[in-house]
């Protein structure tokens, strides 16, 4: 992006964050999704949580609208997307050697179609470290987890990422790739960020709360537009 364009985008984002932000969250009933909701509400944002199981969501707030909808159907997404500034996805598939997975790619396609229909451009979605091979990936990820019970999930994350790269030049996406997620509270430390398939020499984990905060920071930042960034917590790196 040339510098004039990014200054203009930064001004647009700043202006909208000063007025008010409204975000749609999908995968909102998962542990990261729930943290995205509370962090967004804490920032004063309006939130539309698109869920398949409303009973899993017991946050009540006047700025939170919970909608039961199918995230694989673009018209159901579009119906609820009007007026939103961004979509945040914490959708996740179920691990398992024999468990098929297409929820990242299929929900991704439906969300992008809905965004185009409504004219929304900002998308921030989670995949994971190592969606493609990289010699810097931790041994356990590269040779144990990825070829076994995470293989179908990671394969579909890769399909989703490739779709964004090849077919979504009109969408301001940021793909956030975390390592193992923990339920530790945020330590308020800086999230380590690196473009690519992992963060080299960093801890192999990040708290879901820090991940949620980072994703929400992306909503109002011109950084990482049309980028795929790996993140990590900033605790001590594991010994090699
Ligand atoms: N766990 C880790 O260590 C780890 C590491 C790297 C990356 N990640 C990625 O980080 C993200 C967040 O993970 P998490 O563990 O916090 O959450 P999660 O348990 O993976 O939550 C999954 C969310 O996606 C929703 N979902 C799945 N399939 C759906 C479908 N067909 N229709 C509608 N909703 C659907 C679930 O809805 P229901 O509540 O209705 O089931 C839930 O809200 C995921 O993408 C995960 O793959 C996780």
UniProtKB/TrEMBL annotation:
<feature type="domain" description="NAD(P)-binding">
    <location>
        <begin position="27"/>
        <end position="222"/>
    </location>
</feature>
<protein>
    <recommendedName>
        <fullName>NAD(P)-binding domain-containing protein</fullName>
    </recommendedName>
</protein>
<dbReference type="InterPro" id="IPR016040">
    <property type="entry name" value="NAD(P)-bd_dom"/>
</dbReference>
<dbReference type="GO" id="GO:0003824">
    <property type="term" value="F:catalytic activity"/>
</dbReference>
<dbReference type="Pfam" id="PF13460">
    <property type="entry name" value="NAD_binding_10"/>
</dbReference>
<dbReference type="InterPro" id="IPR036291">
    <property type="entry name" value="NAD(P)-bd_dom_sf"/>
</dbReference>
